[in-house]
Write a structure and sequence with these properties.
three-stranded antiparallel sheet
C-alpha cells in the first residue's frame, strides 16, 4: 500500500480490480506473504508493517478477504503470491504478535546479501511453510497460489549454509 489509511488502501484495491477488469485481465496475483509477514489474518505470522506502520498491528480489516470479494465479484481470479524462503529485508525485525519467524526461528535464518532467508534444508522449515500455505488455502477462497523466492541468490551454497 502507498498509504497507512485503511480507506485509501481499500479504495486502491477497488481501483486495481476495476482497472484490471477493464483491461481484460482474468487473474490477480496478490502478495499475501512478503517477508515472513501477512496481508491476511494469520495465526502464524504478524501483520505486514506497511499496512499500519507497525509490524504485527492489526489493521482492523483483512486485505486478502477484501480483495477476494472485490475480484470474484468482478469475475477475476485471485492467486496468493507467497514469498517462500526470503523472510526479511535489510532492516532489523522488531517485536510483534505473533512473533516474526526471523525472531521466533532465528536458527533457521541465514544472511544472504544482507537479507534473511530460512534454510530449506531444515525439515522444520518445510513443515512450517506448509502449515502457513495450508492456512491460506483452507481459510480463503483463493484460486491458486504462486510460490516465489524459492531459489537462493548465491551459487556456492557453502557461503551461507
Amino acid at each position: 500500500p502507498r498509504t497507512l489509511d485503511r480507506t485509501e488502501q481499500q479504495s486502491s484495491l477497488k481501483q486495481i480490480v476495476a482497472d484490471l477488469r477493464a483491461a481484460h485481465f482474468n487473474t490477480i496475483l496478490f502478495q499475501v506473504r512478503a517477508r515472513g509477514d501477512a496481508y491476511y489474518r494469520s495465526s502464524y505470522e504478524p501483520w505486514a508493517e506497511n499496512l499500519t506502520g507497525i509490524l504485527g498491528k492489526d489493521p482492523e480489516w483483512d486485505p486478502l478477504a477484501f480483495l477476494l470479494a472485490e475480484a470474484h465479484n468482478a469475475g477475476l481470479e485471485v492467486h496468493a503470491w507467497f514469498n517462500v524462503y526470503k523472510i526479511r529485508g535489510l532492516s532489523a525485525v522488531g517485536q510483534s504478535v505473533p512473533l516474526h519467524p526471523a525472531r521466533r526461528f532465528a536458527a533457521w535464518v541465514h544472511e544472504v546479501d544482507g537479507e534473511g532467508w530460512v534454510d530449506p534444508g531444515v525439515p522444520e522449515v518445510r513443515d512450517y511453510l506448509v502449515r502457513v500455505a495450508l492456512e491460506i488455502v483452507r481459510r480463503y477462497d483463493v484460486d491458486g497460489i504462486n510460490f516465489d523466492f524459492i531459489i537462493l541468490t548465491k551459487t556456492n551454497t557453502s557461503d551461507f549454509i
